[in-house]
């Protein structure tokens, strides 16, 4: 998770979805911007921007949709990881990370756990930003009378260059498609390395070759532990984004589970958490 502290200054930023009174002290308030995947912590004239990542932002967005509403674990899993299948361990890790950011990991009063029901965002700490008031609309003007000559102009009224005006929209479409293809071709490709140990296959992904080498070095011990979890053939895909490691575990039938862990807790993963990644 990446944090940066800067003096508070005017900045072009969309309105927050809502605000959360944190447990960090000094009157710290967290403003949630789901479209930026960010929490902005404000206190004493300073800001800290916290990158939540896609899944963490989707999880908090669902909880903030209606503070005080109990949201089932299965609904949070399908909302935050709509494009993949993950285990309960991924949800537990994201809830723990959000509590850390909000200074709530010990008291657990902001994000509350309701046994056998799910999680709830405490409305005493969280509030949504009210939607902007609608501007009053003016009554439409009555339709203007149109003469028959305006509807049916003489045939000779057409000018020789009218075909240019007709062709202009088509030309704009062609240019737009060409620009889109050019931008797509310029997108950076992920650097990739693969290795196999017995019937275990490991894939390492990163946008930068230097960071890819660091990813392999920092997850070397983790790869050994993953390979020892099962005697069956397995594929493991490891990547790192916004301070979190993502490990996708797939079996021979293609079933996949995802484990997400903060970079500071990588070495603290126990065997139970690792086994939750196995399909």
Automatic annotation (TrEMBL):
<keyword id="KW-0238">DNA-binding</keyword>
<feature type="domain" description="OmpR/PhoB-type">
    <location>
        <begin position="19"/>
        <end position="123"/>
    </location>
</feature>
<dbReference type="InterPro" id="IPR016032">
    <property type="entry name" value="Sig_transdc_resp-reg_C-effctor"/>
</dbReference>
<dbReference type="InterPro" id="IPR036388">
    <property type="entry name" value="WH-like_DNA-bd_sf"/>
</dbReference>
<dbReference type="InterPro" id="IPR001867">
    <property type="entry name" value="OmpR/PhoB-type_DNA-bd"/>
</dbReference>
<keyword id="KW-0812">Transmembrane</keyword>
<keyword id="KW-0472">Membrane</keyword>
<dbReference type="GO" id="GO:0000160">
    <property type="term" value="P:phosphorelay signal transduction system"/>
</dbReference>
<dbReference type="Pfam" id="PF00486">
    <property type="entry name" value="Trans_reg_C"/>
</dbReference>
<feature type="region of interest" description="Disordered">
    <location>
        <begin position="121"/>
        <end position="151"/>
    </location>
</feature>
<keyword id="KW-1133">Transmembrane helix</keyword>
<protein>
    <submittedName>
        <fullName>CadC</fullName>
    </submittedName>
</protein>
<dbReference type="GO" id="GO:0006355">
    <property type="term" value="P:regulation of DNA-templated transcription"/>
</dbReference>
<dbReference type="GO" id="GO:0003677">
    <property type="term" value="F:DNA binding"/>
</dbReference>
<feature type="DNA-binding region" description="OmpR/PhoB-type">
    <location>
        <begin position="19"/>
        <end position="123"/>
    </location>
</feature>
<feature type="transmembrane region" description="Helical">
    <location>
        <begin position="163"/>
        <end position="184"/>
    </location>
</feature>
<feature type="compositionally biased region" description="Pro residues">
    <location>
        <begin position="129"/>
        <end position="143"/>
    </location>
</feature>
